[in-house]
Amino acid sequence: MSAIMADVSTATAAATHTHQHVTVNRPNPVSVGTIVWLASELMFFAALFAMYFTVRQVLPADEWAAQADKLNIPFSAVNTTVLVLSSVTCQMGVLAAERFQPQRKGRIWAFWSWGMHEWMALTYLMGAFFIGGQVLEYAELVHEGLTISSSPYGSVFFLTTGFHGLHVLGGLIAFLFLLGRSFAARRFGHHEATTAIVVSYYWHFVDVVWIALFFVIYILR
Amino acid sequence: MKIETRLFIAGTPLFLLAAGVYALWTANTAQGWEPVGTLCILLVGAMVFMVGFYLMLTAKRIDERPEDTEHAEIADGAGDQGVFAPWSWWPLAIAGSAALAFLGLAVGWWILGIAIPFGIIALVGWVFEFSRGQHAH
């Protein structure tokens, strides 16, 4: 029995090696699955937006404004810019992964010859910058007396931006896994390229959600 | 993949319309427009569009599948369906750690301290199962 099982698993393994994630006439189930899951994530954020707008509607306008005016718009705008640009660097990483180039071909500052590792590492740093900025922003707001339990505005502000921040944090972990898979592979193949592509889907999604959040929370206020 | 694409994208105008009608309808009540329903119906429209649009892009990149042609034979669908790991225990380990973590949220935070190390081990094991041992490549 165990001999048969061993046979089965080696046969499957051999098949996956020669033909990882690519068939000409089938959609890649990993990518489609990621998109369907991200669509469900959209509904998660829909609930957060719904919560935000409901509290905004039932709260007296001056009470809302007294809290919302504490936000530091220029600081958050810089943070947002970094996050949006990180989507660009992430896409550069995907293009490198699609030409199966894990490493740079030139010097470190010759970014036009960068591979997936360099672009994704830069994306990671930019995402980490965003999280760092958000921690600073939270510290500042708590200092000014706005906490998750201080007021209804505090609750919805920290819940919406906090859940988004957790998603960015999850994305950073995903980047580590992506780089780990790529470093573990002697031959950079479809397995690693698919990972890069679906992590980028997630990253772009979280980025777009932030643009919506930024518009609603900081611009519309 | 036309049928899947249409199935999803067809929902978009429907939900956009429904969101508009809902918003206007509730705007005429004493409480004013109702944001939960309006936003969620609107974003259901975005959700189906997202899936439909992705399927449309995918359809352009791949050849026609046997399902898409009326004259296909069963045998045309033979071959790889995707990469699956029929022997893998890692998803079970991840699900177990996630269940333990949620138990922690419900019962007591200290359980989370047990769940997190298990979760990290399970996640790392699952992510790297095709990258090490006999599957190293």
TrEMBL record, chain B:
Location of the protein in the cell: Cell membrane
Segments passing through the bilayer: 33-57, 83-103, 109-128
Annotated EC: 7.1.1.9
EC main group: translocase
Entry keyword set: Cell membrane, Membrane, Translocase, Transmembrane, Transmembrane helix
Membrane-protein topology: Multi-pass membrane protein
InterPro entries xref list: Cyt_c_oxidase_su4_actinobac
Function: Part of cytochrome c oxidase, its function is unknown.
Self-association state and partner proteins as the record states: Associates with subunits I, II and III to form cytochrome c oxidase.
Protein name (Swiss-Prot/TrEMBL): Cytochrome c oxidase polypeptide 4
Organism: Myceligenerans indicum
